[in-house]
Structure formats: structure tokens, C-alpha cells
Amino acid sequence: MNGVPVRAEKGSTLLEAARFMGFPIPTLCHMEGLSPYGACRLCVVEIGEGPRSKLVSSCTYPVEEGLKVRTASARVIRARRMILELLLATCPQSKVIQDLASAHAVRQQRFRQEHEDCILCGLCVRMCEEQMAAKAIGFRGRGRSRSVGTPFDVKSETCRTCGGCIYVCPACQLRCTFTEKDSGVCGGCANLAPPCLTRPEFKDMMCSMNPCVACETETGA
Fold first, then answer.
1. Is the bond leading into 170 cis (omega within 30 degrees of zero)?
2. pLDDT tens digits for range 115-151
3. Four-CA torsion 24, 196, 203, 47, nearest 10 degrees
4. Angstrom distance (rounded) from CA 62 to CA 13
5. Whose CB has fewer CB within 10 Å in the chain, the N or C terminal residue?
6. pTM of the model
């Protein structure tokens, strides 16, 4: 992983192995204590080498013997930024998404804003079923008609109004209320863009340290 030999327990995921080794990987639909879902794809990493390399979601991909993983290659960074742009277009007021976008130097998004109140991350559904043992809500429909709610929109008799679904929902944690896509990210708390992103020698692997040593040096200068 990132050129470092890694030993991981059989059955664990690439995300778990990366975090154990101290390699930061951003996540949105993943939460400790809940089953992995792989909905947001923000945790993508690059596996393999050459033309046969591919992007996979690290929260659902199991560790394998001899697997070569890069958690911050140029391809991975581009994919994460595109995903964040799409998330911003879907739910631009989310504090969680805003902070992730700022952390990854996404200053604007190029898509039409939808202002949805759900990004289908599945956190609320899994929280209700796995931690609250209620199963009061779930997914309904398919494709563009997919949504979260109770069957037939009838008030659930098993819901205890515990608030667990609201607690984990990234769309419920609001901050900005911009309506223009050029102002979709306030960027008020954003740091400098990592200088290594513009250097050709770092094309295959960006700095995986948090905070980035190069960024800290440039900021200090």
C-alpha cells in the first residue's frame, strides 16, 4: 500500500488496512459500527498496475495477498474531486460535503444544482436497522425513483423517534445556502492547494500524510 508492505487480517477491507497504517481516506457513507455500503464511492483507491489498474471502493474491497494499492494517486484524486462536485450539485447546503470539498480543493462545481434533501448514502437506514434494531425506514423504488422512507409512506409503528437517523445524515447538517453553482462552495475554511498536485514526479502518488509535509512547509514559508 503506497509502496509500504502491509500485513492485514484476513476478511478486513482496504479502508481498514489503510487507516490502521495511517493513510487517510475520505468517506461519507461509511461509519464505524455500521456495515459497509459503498454508496458514495468517495473512498475509492487504485489497485493493480499499468493499464489493468482500476478504481475500487476501499470500504467494501477485501484485502488480498500481493495486492498493490495506491490511496492518493492522480487518478484517485481526480475521481474524488469529480464525486465531490456531483455531491455538491445534489446537496450543496450540506456542511459535511462542504468540508470535504474544501479539504480536497474543490472550489466550485460544474453541474446543475438539485438541492435534494437526500443523497442516498444509506446511513440512516443502516443506523435504524443495525444500531436501533427498529427497521422503521428503508429504501423504496429503483433508479431515479429510489428514496428513503416508510413503506407506502405510512407512519411506522416501530419508530421510537430516537433521532439516530438525523444524527448521522450528512444532508441534515446544513451550512451554506447558495443557489448559484459558482458559489456552491464557500471555501472560507479552505487551505492552500497541495503543491504536489502540480508536480509531474508525483503523478502516480500524492503525499499520503495528514497533514501533508509539503503543504505544511509551503504554508510555513
1. no
2. 888 999 999 999 999 999 999 999 998 888 899 998 8
3. 0
4. 4
5. C
6. 0.78
The structural domains of the chain, with segments of one domain joined by +, span 123-168
Hey, which bits of the chain come out as E strands?
44-47, 54-57, 69-70, 138-140, 147-149
Q: Which residues, 6 or more positions from 123, have their beta carbon under 8 angstroms from its beta carbon?
A: 29, 31, 34, 165, 168, 169, 170
Please give the distance of CA 142 from its chain centroid, rounded to a whole number.
22
Amino acid at position 51, single letter: P
Query: Where is mean pLDDT largest: 80-84, 91-95, 196-200?
Result: 80-84
Selected from 3.30.70.20, 3.40.190.10, 3.40.50.2000, 2.40.50.140, the CATH number assigned to the domain covering 123-168 reads 3.30.70.20
Q: For residue 215, give the nearest of 199, 198, 191 by alpha carbon.
A: 191
